[in-house]
């Protein structure tokens, strides 16, 4: 894969890689909702088209943000899991959730407002740690 960067700005460079509308959505689906299969991504509320999903998963793999795994008892189904590099996006996901909660609730009143959001508002570093620990213990296949 040949990446093309617009300039030397670190923010613009990050957006060149992660700035399309699906990349962080897929990371969020893996991290927060523990989705791992193509079918689970396709059936999510976000409604990602099959061809886009295929392309974005390949790109996430090429960027080493995601790796493929297989269940020991089911060698057919591909599992997509965040790598440590992918998990390093967790603080960004938490910050986006907090920003959306504070700035977009008036525009989108159905934004989730349950216990996870309350925990993020109270202790974002603690919530980030919990998300990482949960993912590592509940999702990752050795």
Structural write-up:
The chain has 142 residues and is mainly alpha-helical. 56% of the residues lie in helices and 11% in strands. The protein has helices spanning 10-18, 23-33, 38-42, 50-62, 84-87, 90-103, 115-122, 124-138; strands at residues 66-71, 74-82. Strands 1-2 form a two-stranded antiparallel sheet. A hairpin with a 2-residue loop joins strand 1 (66-71) and strand 2 (74-82). Helix 6 crosses helix 8 and helix 7 crosses helix 8. The protein is globular. The protein starts with 9 loop residues before the first helix and ends with a helix. 16% of the residues are buried. The mean pLDDT is 91.
List keywords for this structure.
about 140 residues, mainly alpha, two-stranded antiparallel ribbon, about 10% strand, globular
In helices, the fraction of residues equals: 55-70%
SSE ordering = HHHHEEHHHH
Report the biggest beta sheet as strand number plus sense, adding barrel if it closes. Answer: 2 strands, antiparallel
Mean pLDDT value: 91
Break the fold down into its secondary structure elements and pairings:
Blueprint: H1 10-18, H2 23-33, H3 38-42, H4 50-62, E1 66-71, E2 74-82, H5 84-87, H6 90-103, H7 115-122, H8 124-138
Antiparallel strand pairs: 1-2
């Amino acid at each position: 894969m040949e990446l093309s960067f617009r300039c030397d700005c670190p923010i613009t460079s990050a957006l060149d890689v992660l700035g399309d509308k699906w990349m962080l959505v897929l990371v969020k689906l893996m991290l927060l909702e523990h989705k791992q299969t193509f079918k689970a991504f396709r059936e999510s509320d976000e409604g990602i088209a099959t061809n886009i999903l295929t392309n974005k998963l390949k790109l996430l793999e090429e960027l080493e943000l995601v790796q493929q795994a297989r269940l020991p008892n089911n060698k057919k189904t591909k599992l997509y899991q965040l790598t440590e590099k992918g998990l390093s996006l967790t603080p960004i996901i938490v910050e986006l959730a907090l920003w959306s909660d504070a700035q977009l609730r008036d525009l989108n009143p159905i934004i989730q407002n349950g216990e996870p959001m309350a925990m993020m508002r109270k202790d974002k570093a603690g919530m980030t740690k919990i998300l990482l620990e949960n993912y590592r213990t509940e999702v990752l296949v050795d």
